[in-house]
Amino acid sequence: MIIFTNPLLLAAIIVACVLHGLAIFLPGILSKVINYVNIGLHIASLALLMWQRAEVDEALLFYVVSIFVYTALAFAQQELCRAKASDKEDEV
Question: pTM value?
Answer without folding.
Answer: 0.83
